[in-house]
Amino acid sequence: MGNHRDSTEEVSSVAVTSLEASKEKFPDPGLPPHSPRLTDVDPKQNKKAERHVTLLFVISILGALLFWFAYFGIRVEGNFYDVTNPENNHLLRLQNLFLGLGIALSMFGIGIGIVHWARALMPDHEMVEMRHPVSSEESRAEAQDIMETIIDESGIKRRPLLRNTLIGSIILAPLTFVTLFRDLGPANPSLLKHTLWDQGVRLVRDPSGTPIKAADVTIGSAYHVLPENLQSLTHETGYVEEKAKAVVLLMRINPAELNISEDRKDWNVDGILAFSKVCTHVGCPIALYEQRTHHLLCPCHQSTFDAANECEVIFGPAAHPLPQLPIAVDEEGYLVAQSDFHEPVGPAYWERAKHVNEMAGEAN
């Protein structure tokens, strides 16, 4: 035990000696001499830098306003998806241009403005402070004094125009992204309970609108499908909204490879299945079908659904399977819906279970 203590003390002594030798050999160089900037010695340059920062914050505010003008002010009349309409194409391109330009200017202005403010106007003296091992009342009071000193040195109190434009850009820039949240889904989840699908409504190809015969759907094929009665709607009567809820992906799988529950045995036609294209995560359109594995992939966040197993989630953030549309064949051999979806389509929301139970009760 005594030998162990002696060896430990010897190692400690050697370490201290080595540290002292290192300090003697490599002395602390200290901080380099401070070089004042033009804004530190020339009041005109200081005022000019302040105007530049203010201008950048104003650009950020104008960018946010441009975004909202494009979002709320540019309206596309008629069918959103009529690519043959040159006026629609022009307005859509113009709106997308202004939306992107508005967000870019808003974020660019506030970002570059803060960087320029820090580099040109805020104090740039280097300093070294020892870190205290334990926080105390004195330490907290000292930290508060430091924060007040930083605020004073930043000049935000004595530069009201710069301060006000900064506050305006900080408030408006994030709101451009918040505005986009309103497009993630309806404010009233009950709107997703029902779509245009109903008993006897034919399945038609998107975008041609031609009905689909069961005999034309081969194993491994996939179709983007809409309800036939959607064609009677216009942009003013809710075409876009109804299409967003009713879009369906149709595919045919070898019946021997399907795992179907007893209550869904008659929801397919010899392996022809129809599932909602609206991802149950945040509502992105699912359009990628892997024929060999029968997987459906959402391109936004990689949620993956197994079409051979009632579209259960096998990967990704989605919490619920894709709703299945019950289908049948009419007298002429065309595919038709047996009913509407038996559960709400779209993203999973906190009242989903309640709405599923309500729809089950309505179906009964």
From TrEMBL:
Belongs to the Rieske iron-sulfur protein family. Iron-sulfur subunit of the cytochrome bc1 complex, an essential component of the respiratory electron transport chain required for ATP synthesis. The bc1 complex catalyzes the oxidation of menaquinol and the reduction of cytochrome c in the respiratory chain. The bc1 complex operates through a Q-cycle mechanism that couples electron transfer to generation of the proton gradient that drives ATP synthesis. Its main location: membrane. One of its GO terms (molecular function) is oxidoreductase activity, acting on paired donors, with incorporation or reduction of molecular oxygen. It comes from Rothia terrae. The chain crosses the membrane at residues 53-74, 94-118, 161-181. It is found in: Cell membrane. The keyword Membrane applies. Residues 20-45 are annotated as: Disordered. PANTHER family: CYTOCHROME B-C1 COMPLEX SUBUNIT RIESKE, MITOCHONDRIAL (PTHR10134). Keywords: 2Fe-2S, Cell membrane, Disulfide bond, Electron transport, Iron, Iron-sulfur, Membrane, Metal-binding, Oxidoreductase, Respiratory chain, Transmembrane, Transmembrane helix, Transport. Residues 267-336 form the Rieske domain. This is Cytochrome bc1 complex Rieske iron-sulfur subunit. Pfam families: QcrA_N (PF19297), Rieske (PF00355). InterPro entries: QcrA_N (IPR045603), Rieske_2Fe-2S (IPR017941), Rieske_2Fe-2S_sf (IPR036922), Rieske_Fe-S_prot (IPR014349). It is a multi-pass membrane protein. It comes from the Bacteria. GO terms for cellular component: plasma membrane. CDD domains: Rieske (cd03467).
